[in-house]
Write a structure and sequence with these properties.
By secondary structure, the protein is mostly helical. The protein is built from 13 helices and 2 strands, in the order ββααααααααααααα. Strands 1-2 form a two-stranded antiparallel ribbon. Strand 1 and strand 2 form a beta hairpin. Helix 1 crosses helix 4, helix 1 packs antiparallel against helix 10 and helix 1 packs parallel to helix 11. The longest helix is centred in the middle third of the chain and has 31 residues. It starts with 8 loop residues before the first strand and ends in a 5-residue tail after the last helix. InterPro entries: EmrE-like, Nuc_sug_transpt. It is found in: Membrane.
């Protein structure tokens, strides 16, 4: 169910402004925290295992989605509804279809930690917008969606802007102390892979949602539940011997826990934005997050803003707004649905594993 942000208020403030403010803060804080948790001084020889962080992230999302989904179930069915009547909705029917995107999102989350540990905050956040391009390509290939000229131009501009930022990043030598532990090429490869997986998983999740009977909250419970299996598999394959020797929570500190909570609860904020805000306002939030993260990185992480970086960021922000600009719907296209509408319903929300009712 979608709402108009101006009609729903909290203490006199329209919910759309509250949701967008929270999204801006969450986007900025998450990238900063992820990066700092991987490079913070004093933990050079005591880095936490990212596979354990991803598992905890999924467990927290599973609990939150289950509680909200069960609450929604009781509200729709009545207070006499019991838990045993709710469980078949999660584990019955075609729930197995969520196993594929669950595996993909687990890979994506692990790659995000790799990218965050090898790229500066600003570079990572700008480059990660490449997921817009990958989502569009997979939508065209798998869903046979048609994009107008404006959207193709915006995707070209987006790619150019990210290319400028990355070429400058790969060619420069950072003077930050953390740069000793960073590998820009590894970081770029990780974020590029994460964007490819994000696009594929989002489009597949959208196909599952079409014509679905379970609520989106139930789908997200299924997604989080099936994500636990590849999370455990990743731990066993990559970190089991180290975890057995040093412990599951080796290297954990308040910054690490804060990063996990930010990532887990970020989906709720995305849900608020999907429900109360439009794409244009969400773009403002993304743009402000990029600028804010860059400025904070200058003062806290010794990030150097170059002319090439400014040009690249301008291209990315302009492309984001151009991409979500409504296009005229041709009369002869019948059931054509703009890509941005589908992204608002599934792409952004699916990535965070939480969405609206």
């Amino acid at each position: 169910m979608a709402y108009k942000g101006d009609e729903v208020k909290f203490k006199g403030i329209p919910m759309k402004y509250i949701a967008l403010a929270l999204l801006t803060i969450q986007n900025s804080a998450l990238i900063l925290t992820l990066n700092y948790s991987r490079v913070m001084p004093g933990y050079e020889d005591k880095r936490y295992f990212t596979s354990t962080a991803v598992l905890l992230n999924e467990l927290i999302k599973l609990i939150v989605c289950f509680i909200v989904g069960y609450y929604q179930f009781r509200r729709n069915v009545g207070s006499e509804a019991r838990l045993r009547a709710f469980l078949p909705q999660i584990f019955g029917g075609d729930s197995w279809k969520l196993g594929i995107p669950a595996f993909l999102y687990t890979c994506q989350n692990n790659l995000q930690y790799v990218a965050a540990g090898n790229l500066s905050v600003a570079i990572f956040q700008v480059t990660y917008q490449l997921k817009i391009l990958t989502t569009a390509i997979f939508s065209v290939v798998l869903l046979h969606r048609k994009l107008g000229l404006t959207k193709w131009v915006s995707l070209f501009i987006l790619t150019g802007g990210i290319a400028i930022v990355q070429l400058q990043n790969l060619a420069s030598d950072s003077t930050s102390p953390a740069s000793t532990y960073m590998n820009p090429l590894t970081g770029f490869t990780a974020v590029l892979s994460a964007c490819l997986i994000s696009g594929l998983a989002g489009v597949y999740f959208e196909k599952v949602l079409k014509g679905t009977n379970p609520s989106l909250w139930v789908r997200n419970v299924q997604l989080s539940f099936f994500s636990i299996v590849p999370c455990i598999f990743t731990i066993l394959v990559s970190d089991y011997s180290n975890i057995a020797q040093k412990g599951f929570f080796y290297g954990y500190n308040p910054v690490v826990w804060f990063a996990i909570l930010l990532q887990a609860f970020g989906g709720i904020i995305v849900a608020l934005c999907v429900a109360f805000a439009d794409n244009i306002m969400k773009n403002f939030s993304t743009s402000i997050s990029i600028i804010l993260s860059s400025l904070v990185s200058v003062y806290l992480l010794d990030f150097k803003i170059s002319f090439a970086f400014v040009v690249g960021v301008a291209f990315v922000i302009a492309a984001t707004f151009l991409y979500t600009k409504p296009e005229q719907k041709p009369v002869d296209q019948g059931n054509y649905i703009p890509l941005t509408t589908q992204e608002a319903a599934s792409g952004d929300a699916a990535e965070s594993n939480v969405t609206k009712n």
